[in-house]
């Protein structure tokens, strides 16, 4: 808002028609382009996102219509006709988007008041009636907004502050319109206020459009939040259905002189996060062997959970068919290469033979199993094996380890040790060896891991599986 005007310094006239005509042409061209895009937008009332987009297009069109009208008034600069000579103009339709602008001036020295013809329509007054003084103007305003209008006018007249605010006007038939008022005092030679001018604009449709944008945006946010909650719930249910729900240690095989004591756990992040692609599995096989495995699949949410379901199904099927760990990972690599969405996966698969107490294992870009014997531990020497999906067709080599009664194997996914990866994470896990000693069960050892790494701040999902050679 410019500084207050002086009574002996007339306001500058608007610029000539040439530049304004160019602006009007640009505005109308832009209106046509926006309207064309709006017409191509699907009018799907059931889609919150489409309702929000439609409301934004309506608001943009309203503001462009507004700009077009104001530029036309600036170009034409019509003289104000006396109010009594103006015929009563027809009221525009309620849904019209074009804002209406009127002006007024109150002379404090002569008590003269002049209103433009459009101001009568904006304020719902009969054009034949005299214009209202500043004392009478609040009578048109809704009760709740009168103090705001009185404060704006008083601040302008007494303190010389510009007016810039809104109030609501009650028309006939309980039609409430929102009016935006901008004005300034005109100062005399002695610095006192001699008159006040104002421009008033009907912004009812603009506010309606903005409310529609806000409401549809809020509706879209609620819809997306509800959809996210439903997707998260589905992913959780799918993960719980896929991962073995173990409570306590399991014995593999269930009968026989030589057995593995197996337990596992999934460690979620400390803050709410989407379901990840971490998994673990243990499966009794038909040839006096047990399959142990852990891994992680890229992605989150339902996509990751469904990918884990597919991968675990393939792992179990091939293991039951007698496929060794290396060829099994080779097949998984080819399987992931055929999926519609490219994904990467790391995994460790280990086949333990109970009669010989030997573990044959392979890995695909994954941390090696940790072997604890007595009060010490070490990482097994990893055979070569690329991340699944990273180098389709590459072979995954195997390694073999002979175990003893009391030995303990720990398989885990990345992210098990918060804030540590690679060698640093392995050192932290190997430091648990003294706690694992003494013939403790696999479940006790899993509890030690969860207590050490799962109760503080965690940023990632992780899985841990412990297998102890019980006999």
Automatic annotation (TrEMBL):
The keyword Transport does not apply. It holds the Pfam family PAS_3. Residues 30-50 have a biased composition (Basic and acidic residues). It comes from the Bacteria. Transmembrane segments: none annotated. Keywords: Hydrolase. Residues 163-215 form the PAC domain. Residues 1-50, 73-92 are annotated as: Disordered. Coiled coil: none annotated. The keyword Hydrolase applies. PANTHER family: STAGE II SPORULATION PROTEIN E (PTHR43156:SF2), STAGE II SPORULATION PROTEIN E-RELATED (PTHR43156). This is PAS domain-containing protein. It comes from Streptomyces erythrogriseus.
